[in-house]
Amino acid sequence: MRINQSVCFPIFRSRITDLGALFEAVADIGYPAIELWARGDDFGEVVRLADRHGLAIASMSGHSGLAEGLNNRANHDRLEAELRDSIDIAAHHGIPGLICMSGNRQPHVGELEAIDAVADGLRRVAPYAELKGINLNLELLNSKINHAGYQCDHTAWGVAVCEKVNSPRVKLLYDIYHMQIMEGDVIRTIRENIGWIGHFHTAGNPGRQDMDDEQELNYAGVCGAIAATDYDLYVGHEFAPKGDIIEALRQAFEICDRE
After folding, report:
1. Of 61, 199, 62, 59, which is closest to residue 126 (Cα–Cα)?
2. What is the domain range of residue 14?
3. N or C terminus of the chain: which is more exposed, having fewer CB within 10 Å?
């Protein structure tokens, strides 16, 4: 199945003055979608501009806060309200998935207790996500380099949460860059857990930059492995280009354009 690629445009925004030109170039390269994160004041404008260029919205943040997430039960009321609101927005705009965060490890809280807390938080909104047809994608991040203390930092941890919730709409955001740092063995892990994955992110490692020959991941092989499964959602590029943004996005598209 051909890889559906998207562009995490907030990474590039600080270097782009003309968002319309960026979206036009992204569409011309062949990308079918962009990815949003936080809902800023210009959310509606960005969505309309993407639509004008024939670009879908692949994913967006489901709630505020990365360090203060679902593993703290004191956050559950707030996060439930935010996620329900985000589910409505996603359903209205045809956005298939929302990014959810475990939060950083809590003092004196064991791993199993934290898994239960995240699962309970997601279970509160899973029926509504099922009703609206929206995935809740718990993001896997590395706690070694970029996000010290983040709890959902291994695939098995995230899968344990998904198994406890037991909803077809609770999945993982498998970030290839982050999991290369924490685990390696990326292709085997993807193959064994593809049923739990609702979104992907990419970047070269080390450096979180281009997917070129100066980094260690073979993205042609990784994306070929994804394409060989039944996965039909998005692989979102979340890297910081070393040079020209459009050329870097064109190169990434060509590397990952697998079926």
Report:
1. 62
2. 4-256
3. C
